[in-house]
Amino acid sequence: MVRQGLKLILADRFKKSVFGEARNAGEAFRRVMEEKWDVLILDITMPGRSGLEVLREIRRLRPKLPVLVLSMHPEDQFAIRLLRAGAAGYLTKESAGEELVGAIKKVVAGGRYISPSLAERMATFLDIDVQKAPHERLSDREFLVLRMIASGKQVSQIARELSLSVKTISTYRARLIEKMHLKNNAELTHYALQKGLVD
């Protein structure tokens, strides 16, 4: 429904454009490799691999393809991390259709799109020396493992979903708990819920 809604909004403004869609990361990679697109609109919450990992892989496969992230997550949780990972812009799903159209035009022209509220927040970071929140010190993979543990997944399940060994996931878990000065999964889950890092 979300994809169909987006296509209706965009088809009205970009009348001669061709649109495609992908249901998951595998379809997205295939279409990006086999077809020539001017812009990719990516949701970071998708079946299988996380949108953050998909973004990094697409940046590797098609470094010149602008990727505009459209997410249900608030800007303060993910936007700066995704922009650092190579996104050309970040919008929440509550954004108006006109904002989406403007963002697409900007990134297709080679620019980057950030909302006025995010621009203000980034300017504040430049003006004052703000200590990073514990989860902002994590690597992208550690951050992903944090979210998966906090959503109730076991280490073995996370290992299967990320195609990594149980030992590797356990190492990530130990590392992120140490970096965040937490003691166990319960504290980790409480922190993630408190900060709104899980759905």
CATH topology of the largest domain: Rossmann fold
Q: What is the assigned CATH homologous superfamily of the largest domain?
A: Response regulator
Derived from helix and strand composition plus strand pairing, the structural class reads: mainly alpha
Count of spatially separate domains: 2
- What is the H-and-E element order? HHEHEHEHHHHHH
The count of helical stretches stands at 10
Main beta sheet: 3 strands, parallel
Using only C-alpha atoms, the radius of gyration works out to 18 Å
What overall form do the CA principal axes indicate?
globular
- Unreliably modeled segments: none
Helix percentage: 55-70%
Q: For the terminal residues, how far apart are their CA atoms? A: 19 Å
The fraction of residues in strands falls at 5-15%
Which strand order do you get reading across the main beta sheet?
1-2-3
Give the tally of β-strands: 3
List keywords for this structure.
single chain; 199 residues; mainly alpha; Rossmann fold; Arc Repressor Mutant, subunit A; 2 domains; three-stranded parallel beta sheet; 10 helices; 3 strands; 55% helix; globular
Q: What features would you describe in this structure?
A:
This protein is mostly helical and 199 residues long. It has two domains: 2-127, Rossmann fold, CATH 3.40.50.2300; 134-194, Winged helix-like DNA-binding domain superfamily/Winged helix DNA-binding domain (Arc Repressor Mutant, subunit A, Orthogonal Bundle), CATH 1.10.10.10. It contains ten helices and three strands; from the N terminus they run H-H-E-H-E-H-E-H-H-H-H-H-H. The chain has a three-stranded parallel β-sheet, sandwiched between helices. The longest helix is centred in the last third of the chain and has 14 residues, at 166-179. The two termini are 19 Å apart. The mean pLDDT is 84.
